[in-house]
C-alpha cells in the first residue's frame, strides 16, 4: 500500500544487497575486528570501508568498542544480529564451492567440528526435520505474502552502485560470484521474484517496478552466470539458480527475525510435508546434526 513502511524483505535487501556489508561480515566471522584487519582482507578503499563500518554499527550488525585511548583506536565486533548471519554465509560458501569451481585459489572445504568430517550444509524444516532442498522447492515449500508483504513494500528505497558483470573481487573474498549475483538490491529482488514464479520480462518489470534497463541488465547478468535460462522469452531458474534456495530462505528467516512488522510477517513459507510454517535449519550432511556457526571451520 502506498506510503507503507518497508517490510523485512526490503530491509534485508537494503543490508545484504550491498556487497561490502556481506564481505565485512564474512571477515568478521573469520576473526577480523580491527580496521587494519578489514582493510588487509578486502579490496576496498578506505573511504568505503570507513563508511560501511559506521553504517553497519548504526544498523546494529556491529558494535564499536574503543580498545586504545592514545591514540584513539576502535574495534568492530559482531552483534548477535550480525553473528546470526552465519547460516547465510555458510550457504553462500557451499554454493560457491559447488557451482563456481574456478576460484583461484580454490575455496577450502568446510569441517564440522562436532563430527570431524568435511561436510556440506543441508537445509531442513525446523519444525519436522524433513529435507527442503532446492531441487524440491516447488513441491516442498510454498510462499505467499504475509500481512506486511507486497512487492511495493519489499523493494529498498535506494540502490548502491554495483560492480560490472565482468569484475570480480579478488581472492580475499570467499564468494566473488555470489557478489556478482546478489551484490545489488535489484538483482537480489529479481532472483526472489524468479523463485516465486515470475518468468517474463514484462512481469518482472511490473512486479518489481524497476526501469526496463535495470531489468534487462540484471536478466543478462543472471543468464551470463547460468543462474537463469531464457527459453522462448521466459526466464527459468537453472540448477545453479535453484541452488540459491538455502541462501534466500536463510536470508529471509534472518530478516523476519530482526525486522518484524507490527502487522505480521512479510512472507509466509509453508512446508508441505508437515503443513507448518517453514523455517530453515542447516544440518551436517555427514552426521545429520544441527549446525552451529561456532562448529564450522575451513580446512
From TrEMBL:
InterPro entries for this protein: HTH_HxlR, WH-like_DNA-bd_sf, WH_DNA-bd_sf
One GO MF term: DNA binding
Name of the featured protein: HxlR family transcriptional regulator
Keywords: DNA-binding, Transcription, Transcription regulation
Keyword Protein transport: no
DNA-binding is among the record's keywords: yes
Organism listed in the record: Mycolicibacterium duvalii
Domain of life: Bacteria
PANTHER family tied to this protein: TRANSCRIPTIONAL REGULATOR, MARR FAMILY, TRANSCRIPTIONAL REGULATORY PROTEIN
Domain HTH hxlR-type: 5-104
